[in-house]
Amino acid sequence: MALTKIEIFELIRQKTFLSPQQARNSVETLLEIMKSTLASGEDIMISGLGKFCVKDKAARKGRNPATDEEMILKARRVVTFKCSGKLKNKVKG
Question: Is-above-0.85 flag for pTM?
């Protein structure tokens, strides 16, 4: 099961002296900053966590698996994440 935003708000509230509203506002502000930064094409690197990168994907030939029809997939931007060595080691155990 994934950790939800509401659970993150509560964990921050428990670990800090912030009110529930302050914890919520802090998380929402952080996420908005991250979204607008990535939308502008900039990468985000968080020490100890990893790097969010915006990559441009070229148009390419694809196939609809339901109909087997060939099509051209449009060029697009995607966000990738590469975790830091510290996080990788922590997850390994």
Answer: no
